[in-house]
Write a structure and sequence with these properties.
By secondary structure, this protein is an alpha+beta fold. The chain is 35% helix and 9% strand. It has six helices and five strands; from the N terminus they run ααααβββββαα. The strands form two sheets. A three-stranded antiparallel sheet has the order 1-2-5, with no helix packed on it. Strand 1 and strand 2 form a beta hairpin. Helix 3 runs antiparallel to helix 5. The chain is elongated and about 80 Å long.
Length: 175
């Protein structure tokens, strides 16, 4: 429309011509990755944590998965025989609403190989959930989530952050 206005001499030039515009460049945030030593130290600090948090942090480090992607994992996405985990969704929660899922960032559905150690931890977590199902009976809401609340409902995405930010760091030099 602006080009037509120029042709009809309604305006002297097109103010939206690309060469006249200076668009701000988006600054990419630098992604900070743990060093091997930092990851090792963090993993050694997990030994006294609940099993579900041990597994969650292990998977975050080994798979490079985001928190929402991990919380959205279902047992059907884990191939315990082949040591493969498929990340196909991500969880999010808006204030006042229940948990929801969406495709992962950039729609990047991916299948990742996990270590035997991670798979062993997942098997322990699955056994723990089976025990909880029996103990809780009708209170357990089985929807197949890997990371759950006490009653089988999906873990809130902010739960891992709240859990670890509330704990005092005993030896700051170690971390």
């Amino acid at each position: 429309m602006l080009n037509l206005a120029c042709k009809l001499e309604i305006i002297p030039s097109n103010p939206a011509r690309a060469e006249k515009l200076t668009l701000p460049h988006k600054v990419q945030k630098k992604i900070e990755i743990f060093t091997k030593q930092e990851a090792s130290t963090m993993l050694s600090c997990l030994e006294n944590e609940e099993l579900k948090y041990q597994v969650l942090i292990q998977l975050a480090i080994i798979l490079g998965a985001r928190r929402g992607e991990l919380v959205a994992l279902k047992w059907g996405s884990i191939d315990l025989r082949s040591n493969l985990i498929t990340i196909s969704q991500s969880s999010y929660k808006l204030t006042g609403e229940s948990m929801q899922t969406k495709p992962p960032k950039d729609y990047e559905v991916r299948t990742i190989s996990a270590s035997t150690y991670c798979m062993d931890l997942l098997l322990l977590l699955k056994d723990e959930q089976e025990t909880d199902k029996i103990r809780l009976g009708d209170q357990w809401q089985d929807e197949g989530w890997v990371f759950t609340q006490w009653n089988g409902k999906p873990m809130n995405t902010s739960c891992p952050i709240r859990t670890f930010s509330a704990k005092p760091i005993e030896n700051k030099k170690a971390i």
